[in-house]
Write a structure and sequence with these properties.
By secondary structure, the chain is an alpha+beta fold. It contains eight helices and seven strands, in the order E-H-H-H-E-E-H-H-E-H-E-H-E-E-H. The chain has a single domain (8-224), classed as Gcn5-related N-acetyltransferase (GNAT) (Aminopeptidase, 3-Layer(aba) Sandwich), CATH 3.40.630. It is globular and about 50 Å long. Bound molecules: coenzyme A (COA). It comes from Clavelina lepadiformis.
């Protein structure tokens, strides 16, 4: 498997990677992502939410970073999915089976994917919904590689979408997407977001005031790749 000079290699994730992806999301994303962090999730919340995230693997558009020098450990993920994909679950029933905080997070994702993105990005996009690099690997360019490689792979292999969309909650990921040509089309004030069911402003105290919808149009992408 070809690696870069740091011993990291990248490959598409399959459903067989599910358990490793769940661990990575639960023990990294759920702890370090600014919105998750502000909710102070329990281990149960983190694993529940990570299990939901891993359902998007079945859309077969996600990429993993692996450490060749450390037993091929999964050290970073970018979970992508098309705007048409929906996990094969009855969402309302599923929500009843998870904790309040997991429900909050899933409803927020659903709101972003099915309302905000469709409103500001059209309904024919591929979304980079979750990006996470394990803490010891952070700041070494793995996140940048994940986003760049996903863009190239998606653009080369899928012809029928208009744009690539990323939701950025962390300043690092906004920086990475801007660097490779994504533009912010909407900034969402987190203190104004209300949970659809409880009406609670769950992210009022999030460390980040805004979440950004970052878009790169496919025709622009084509000329660059
Ligand atoms: C966000 C994340 C995926 C980035 O991955 P990474 O491998 O650490 O990122 P990279 O090393 O490729 O690049 C980081 C870039 O952000 C820049 N950066 C670091 N801190 C920054 C800040 N506070 N504001 C803006 N840019 C910042 C770095 O300088 C670097 O850019 P450069 O290469 O131009 O110098 C990783 O930090 C992570 O997993 N965070 C926790 C989960 C999370 O928050 N996910 C994002 C949800 S949108």
């Amino acid at each position: 498997m070809p690696t870069d000079k740091s011993g990291i290699y990248y490959r598409l994730l399959t459903i067989n990677d599910k358990n490793d992806v769940i661990k990575s999301i639960a023990n990294n994303f759920c702890i370090r992502d600014p919105l998750c962090k502000s909710l102070i999730l329990s281990e149960k919340d983190r694993y529940e939410y990570a299990t939901y995230v891993a359902m998007f693997l079945t859309d077969n558009k996600s990429l993993g970073a692996f450490d060749d020098d450390n037993d091929d450990q999964l050290c970073g993920v970018q979970i992508n999915s098309s705007s048409y994909f929906v996990p094969d679950i009855d969402l309302e029933k599923y929500l009843l089976s998870v904790s309040q905080k997991t429900q909050n997070l899933i409803r927020f994702d659903h709101f972003l994917q099915k309302e905000m993105m469709n409103k500001f990005c059209g309904n024919n996009y591929i979304g980079g919904y979750w990006i996470s690099v394990n803490a010891p690997y952070s700041g070494r360019g793995v996140g940048h590689q994940l986003v760049t490689r996903c863009m190239k792979w998606l653009t080369t292999n899928f012809r029928d979408f208009d744009s690539l969309v990323a939701v950025t909650t962390a300043p690092e990921s906004k920086h990475i997407t801007e660097k490779i040509g994504f533009k912010s089309t909407y900034e969402m004030k987190m203190s104004e977001y209300k949970d659809e069911k409880t009406g609670e402003r769950i992210f009022a105290n999030a460390g980040v005031p805004f979440v950004y919808l970052m878009v790169k149009l496919r025709n622009v992408t084509n000329s660059n790749l």
